[in-house]
Each structure stands twice: as C-alpha cells, then as structure tokens.
Amino acid sequence: MRYRRPRGVNDILPDEVGQWQRAETAFRRLCKRYRYREIRTPVFEQTGLFTRTVGEESDIVRKEMYTFEDKGGHSLTLRAEGTAPTVRAFIENNLQGQDRERLVKLYYIAPIFRYDRPQAGRYRQHHQAGVEAIGSSNPAVDAEVIDLALAFYQEMGLEDVQLRLNSVGCPKCTPAYVETLKAALGAHVEELCPDCQRRYERNPLRILDCKQPACRRITEQVPKLLDMLCDECREHFEGLVAALDLLGIEYVLDPHIVRGLDYYTKTAFEFVCKGLGAQDSIGGGGRYDGLVEQCGGEPTPGVGFGIGLERVLLARKALGLEEGEPAREGVLVAALNDEAWAEAIKLTSELRDAGIIADLDYRRRSLRSQLRFANSEGFAATVILGEDELAKGVVVVRNMQTGEQQQVARTDAVEYLRNF
Ligand SMILES: [Zn+2]
Ligand SMILES: [Zn+2]
User: Fold this and answer.
1) Are 159 and 274 part of one and the same domain?
2) Range of the domain at 95
3) Among candidates 167, 164, 103, 113, which has minimal Cα distance to 135?
4) Which ligand number lies closest to the CA of residue 195?
5) Strand 161-167 with 358-360, pairing
6) 267 and 134 in a common domain
7) 289 alpha carbon to ligand 1 midpoint, in Å?
8) How far away, in angstroms, is 255 Cα from ligand 2 center?
9) Measuring CA to CA, which residue among 281, 36, 282, 287 is closest to residue 139?
10) Cα(165) to centroid of ligand 2, in Å?
C-alpha cells in the first residue's frame, strides 16, 4: 500500500524549514517588541463559531470549510480563519479581566484550513501569522497593527509592499450604502459574473472586490462607501489616516477592499506585493467592533490582521531573495578502527553534554568517505580518532572550511571545540 499526501497540502521538508523558522522567529520578535503575546487556540472549533461570525454568504462558509461530525455528534470545523477563535478564547478565558477598557494584544502563528481549488500560493492547509488587538476603538491601534505588519514584510526583505486602505462602515451607515450600491448596479445586473449576480441579492458589498474584468468595469463607476460614512466612521477613518501620516506610512485608498468576512467594520486593509502577478495580496485585516459581542461577550472593539506565510515565502522566491547557504556548524567525530569507535562514542556524548552539535558516521566508513560526509552535511569540524591518536592521547581536529588540521590533547578536546 502506498499513500500520498492529500491534494492541496504540503510537506515542509528539512531543507525548507529554515526559511519557515526565520519567518516565524522574525514575527515573534516583532510581536514581542510591540507587546503582543502569543495565544494558541485548538485546531478545531464548534462550527457555529465560523458560520455565525464569518457570514453564511461568505465563500469560506459556503464552500471552503472542513466541517465534520465527531463521534459525539457535535459539528466541528478545522480553523477556517484566525480571528474568531482568538476572540472566542478572549471571551471564554476572560483575558480582559475587570478592566473593561484594557487593550489585550494577542498574536498567533497557526495553520488555516480551507477547501479551496489548489493553485499557486493557495493551499488547503496554509499558515497564518496574525495579531488581534482587542479592547480599544482608538484608530492609532489600527495604525499600530498596520505598522507591525509592514515591519514584518520589511524584515522579510519585501521592500515594495503597498498598503491598500478602505472603510467598510458600521451597522449605522453600511445598510444605506448597500441600498445606494444596489440601485447603482441595478441596470447592470445582467452584465455581472454569475457569482456577483447571486451576491447582488445576498451580499452586494462583495461585488466590489470581484476581480472579473466585467464586474470591475461596472464597480469602477459606483458611489464609494468612503463618501457615505456616518460621522463616527468618518472620524475614525480620519484618525487612522492621521496616525499613519505620523508613522510615515503611505497608503492607497481602494474602495474595492471589503474583505470577504461579515464581521469587519470601519477599517479594512490589504497588503499587496508588487511584481507577483495575480496572487499579489500577501495579507490583510481590519476592524471588527461587533465581533466580541456577536460571540457572546460584552461589546468590545477589536482590530487585527492575518498574513499568509506561504505567500510571503513565495514572494521572497519570486523576487529572487536567496535563502543563502546555512553556516557550517557542529562536529563529526570520525573513528578509524574499533578501539577508536568506542572513544568516538564517548567524545560525541561529551560534546553534546557541553552543548555542542555533534554526530557520528554510523556506517563506519573510510576516513575519506567520512570527510566527504562531513563536508556535504555542513559540519564545521571533523575530529579524527585513529590508532596513533589513541596511543598519544590526542585527537586531530580538521577545519572543514579551510582543510587545516590541528592536534589537540584528548583532555582539552571539548574545550577546544567549544571555541571552534
Ligand atoms: Zn458608520
Ligand atoms: Zn463578479
């Protein structure tokens, strides 16, 4: 019997894992600097958490969720996005405590599961790095999360990332805009793509982010939500723009950014990496002032983003940002006969106990083969132990970079290699 990995998912192999670890480390370091703390939520949640918050009409809920019934008959869904689980945990564990004004800043690095048609940069299991700042309606917090995302792209060498910004309003102003939008689209419904024709009745805002050329031609002409915001939403948007200016962050107003999820209010944004073609969106987010209440908590505002790590790594590759050869490290202990082999096992153990990366060639091959092995495996040094060395109480240390060899007393070997 031969098994293959399911369609649309990847193995991350040892040769590739270095770039993942670098990205994750960079993200963690930045989050710490901005004082976001890590949260790890389960890989599955009650299905209702997603269907009721993301929206019955969203692509995610309509066709992309991995939903299953467990043996107890409960409907569960693999993490379909990062925000709702974080908000659920925020409420359930009372992370805000008694201080209802307290801003709780959280981050996660987690797999996301979507039954999507596999294509470049889109997988059925992908990984997101995200933050959620819950507890403040101050637009400077929106600017802070945007600033953090941009700092991460910078850290990853993606210099040319554009912030595209919009406001999707709130329950006070969005409904009136939706009516205006429907009136403006009314004469053109037949010209819209089949998806948008369906959206016209059920979720007309989503028509704005359809990328079909026919739909774009029509939506370029319609009134903009930014021009119809209520006073509160307009003030918030102006506050955000002012904070971005203070931080020196450039942005492009884009009325097509509505995000695919129902819970967004006010701020909506996306990050676009130029030079990537059609799959140029490498992250996005927005404000969700109604979500905590919708999930059963006290009314509490929030804002956050999610960044697809696969997209970021693909962008690095597309832009020719080489990962570079990993630095040589560690010690191969090469034994030349049976007596030396016993000594080699002891020395390897001593090195490891001293915190030094060390290994043996268990195939017990010739010195020549072992040196070739040490070279291809990227060891910094090979310790050679043969009959002569044992007799003299020494080891020979070979620098794998330069080929230089140095004789060292056996008793000093660990100390010598510690400083190698
Ligand atoms: Zn509003
Ligand atoms: Zn369309």
Assistant:
1) yes
2) 14-173+229-318
3) 103
4) 2
5) unpaired
6) yes
7) 11
8) 15
9) 287
10) 21
> Looking at the domain assignment, is residue 401 inside a domain?
yes
Assign residue 385 the CATH number of its domain. Answer: 3.40.50.800
Closest ligand to C-alpha of residue 206 is 2
Q: How far apart are CA 279 and CA 277, in angstroms?
A: 6
Q: Which residues pair with 281 in a beta bridge?
A: 272
Encode burial over 333-369: b for 16+ CB neighbours within 10 A, e otherwise. bbbbeeebbebbeebbeebeeeebebbbbeeeeeeee
The Å distance, Cα 166 to ligand 1 centre, comes to 13
Q: Which 3 state secondary structure label does DSSP give 38?
A: strand
Crossing angle of the two packed helices 14-33 and 139-155, in degrees rounded to 10: 150
Could you tell me if 275 and 354 lie in one domain?
A: no
158 & 283 share domain = yes
Q: Is the domain of 271 the same as that of 342? A: no
Q: What percent of the chain has pLDDT over 70?
A: 100
> Cα(177)–Cα(181) distance, rounded to whole angstroms?
6
Q: Give the Å distance between the CA of 116 and the centre of ligand 2.
A: 18
- Residue in this structure with the two tokens 């790095």, named with its chain if needed: 129
How far, in Å, from the CA of 183 to the mean position of ligand 2? 17
CA of 215 to the centre of ligand 2 (A): 5
Considering every ligand atom shown, identify the ligand nearest to the alpha carbon of residue 198 and give its number: 2
Task: For 2-36, write each residue's pLDDT tens digit.
Answer: 999 999 999 999 989 999 999 999 999 999 999 99
Task: Looking at the CA of 290, name the nearest ligand.
Answer: 1
How close is the Cα of 182 to the center of ligand 2, in Å?
Answer: 14
Question: In this predicted model, what pLDDT tens digit does every residue of 155-182 receive, in sequence order?
Answer: 999 999 999 999 999 999 999 999 999 9
Distance 276 CA to ligand 2 centre (A): 22
